[in-house]
Amino acid sequence: MQTVENTENPVYPWHTANWRHLERMKSKLPHALLFYGPAGTGVETFAETFAKAMLCENRQPDGHACGACHSCHWFSQYAHPDYRQILPETLEIARGINQADKPVSDDEPAAGKSSKEPSRKIGIDKVRSLADFINVSTHRGGLRIVFVYPAEAMTSESSNALLKMLEEPPANTLFILATSHLDALLPTIVSRCSKLAFPMPEKSVAEIWLKEQGIDDAGIWLAGQGGAPLAALAEAQNGSSENMTMLLDELAAPGDSGLLKTAEKLQKVPMADLITWHQRWLYDLLALRLTGKGRYYPGYRPAQEALANRADIPRLLDLLKKVNERKKTADHPLVPRLALEDMLLDYRKIFAP
């Protein structure tokens, strides 16, 4: 059998142990797998790589898909007749998956088609649409796979609809769920799946991989994303370091008079990014105050340590709660500059006498 190198769907070096584990149990797989691990580490990529391999007609000795058979071609085109992805509309659009004839979910607000915002949730109609898929014979006479990602995006209605399928699984069907928030899933769904944990990669392994991708200062980028290498790679490639540094410089000197000027310069930066950087800074201050150890932004550690000692802990906790609330509307701030000014002014208050 000819071996074809797998390049389209990689297994990252920090996931090889899990790949080998699944290879050992491939002859006795359960009807449902639940992969869970931190965002930005490639858990969803692993799930899709595994699904592609399970459907491959010429699976390689290491368990990977060949990348050349009809099945692999269909899979890469999002057109495999025995594979169904259940994703939020926002992810479907980001991946270029055809939106034609997609039903609007019953459990989402009605709106005109042209004005309706793409949903970040997995509505019940997406799960109901699986009924025909799982109750007819497979195209190739073998396995069919359903991939749900991110599983925590399911509504309560869609979760219960999926639960019924997991309780009475159809023959020759494998459900794969992937999530970065295991505690957000229904306990009954979790109990019906065989769980596989994907821990945060070891720092040394992640740094080596980032350097192989051509990323300078890999350790700094990795720390800024809490150890998540794919998130660090995306951040580095987006060229947002200048904007992030501008915000962090402001946070490091909260008494500085340049707040309004900083807000003006950063007003075109996505609010979600600004809130994420701010949120991580606040987590660092809290961790340094309580444990003496920070997780993100090591280049700012001296300034953070000084600020952590000055911060009023109840105000810091209240601000963290407020920032978490801000994140829910980060994609649609009414006036970005004013929202950023408000966020920075709130930050100053935790150091007020």
Automatic annotation (TrEMBL):
<dbReference type="GO" id="GO:0006261">
    <property type="term" value="P:DNA-templated DNA replication"/>
</dbReference>
<dbReference type="GO" id="GO:0003677">
    <property type="term" value="F:DNA binding"/>
</dbReference>
<dbReference type="Pfam" id="PF13177">
    <property type="entry name" value="DNA_pol3_delta2"/>
</dbReference>
<protein>
    <submittedName>
        <fullName>DNA polymerase III, delta' subunit</fullName>
    </submittedName>
</protein>
<feature type="region of interest" description="Disordered">
    <location>
        <begin position="99"/>
        <end position="119"/>
    </location>
</feature>
<dbReference type="InterPro" id="IPR004622">
    <property type="entry name" value="DNA_pol_HolB"/>
</dbReference>
<dbReference type="GO" id="GO:0008408">
    <property type="term" value="F:3'-5' exonuclease activity"/>
</dbReference>
<dbReference type="GO" id="GO:0003887">
    <property type="term" value="F:DNA-directed DNA polymerase activity"/>
</dbReference>
<dbReference type="InterPro" id="IPR027417">
    <property type="entry name" value="P-loop_NTPase"/>
</dbReference>
<dbReference type="GO" id="GO:0009360">
    <property type="term" value="C:DNA polymerase III complex"/>
</dbReference>
<dbReference type="InterPro" id="IPR050238">
    <property type="entry name" value="DNA_Rep/Repair_Clamp_Loader"/>
</dbReference>
